[in-house]
Give the backbone structure.
Amino acid sequence: MAKNEQMLRLKFIEEFLRRKKDKGASFEEISDYLHRKYQEKDIDLDELRFAQRTFLRDKKAIKKVFGVEIIYKRSLKKYVIDSDELDENQDDVFDNLLLVEAYREVKGRKNIMFFEQRKSRGLHWLHGLVHTITHQKIITLNYTKFWEGVSHKRTIEPYALKEFRNRWYLLANERDGKDFFLKTFGLDRISDLEISNSTFKPEKVDIEEIFINSFGIIATENQEPEEIVLSFNPEQGKYIKTLSLHHSQQVLIDNDKEYRVQVTLVPTYDFEREVLSQGGNVKVISPKSFKEHLNNEVKNMMKNYKI
C-alpha cells in the first residue's frame, strides 16, 4: 500500500494529467507541477523525492490505486492518460475527489464552504449494492413508494446504479415470475437490505442504450425520440452552456438576443418538469405537440395561483 507521501504525489500527478487531457505533459512539466503543489500546500520540498525512476513506479501505482493508465505518446513526447479513461463518469468521480480535498482543507473553519442543506438519503447502500451488481447477487429489501406510504418486501436482481438530481436509483429486475423488466428503486426509499448467497444469470442488456433518449430516471426504450427546439434568453443561455440539458444538445443560435438549442429525446415527465422550471426564461419553438402539452400544464398550474 502506498504511504501518505506517495499517495499525495499520485493524486497530484493524476489531477495534473487529467486536466491536460490529450495535450499531455512531459516529465519535466509534471515535476514542476509537483514542486508548485508542494509549495502551495506548505509541504517540505525535501519530502518530494521525484526522479524519472520514481515516476515510472508512480505510473504503476496510479493504475493500481486509481484504475487509471498513463501512457507515453511518442508523437507528442509527453505522458497522457489513456483516452479510454477520460470519460464523463471518470470526470464526475474525479470532481468529487476534488470536492473532498477542498472540504478537508477548510474542515473546522466556518463560513468558507456552504453545502446544500437538502440531502438525499440512502447513500449508505451504495457500497453493498455495487458488490451485489458486480457479483450478480440476489437481494431482498423493503421498498416504500412515495404515493403508497407502505413498505413491501421485494426480491430483486440488481443491474446498475443511476444518478439523477442528487438522488441515486437502483435499476433491477424483480423476481416475480414475470418477464424481464428493469425497474427503478430510489435508494432513499430502501430499508432492510439483505444480500443472499444465491446468484443470478444477468440478461444481456445495454443500460446506457436504454436511457440514451431519456432525461432523468424514466427509461424510454423502444420509444421514438423527438427533436425539441428551445429558445432561452441570453442570460439563462449562459447557464445552459455550462450545464447542458442533455447529451444530445446542439446549439442553433447563440447571440445577444437568444440562445437556441435542439435536444433529441423522449419528452418524459422529468423533462417536462425541467422545461417548466425555467419559467419565462425559455420558449418552446417546436414541436407543436410538446408546446401545446406544456401550455395545458401551465394553465393547470395557474389555477393554483388564483387570488
User: Anything to note?
Assistant: The chain has nine helices and eleven strands. The first strand starts at residue 70 and ends at 73. Residues 88-106 form the longest helix (19 residues). The mean pLDDT is 84.
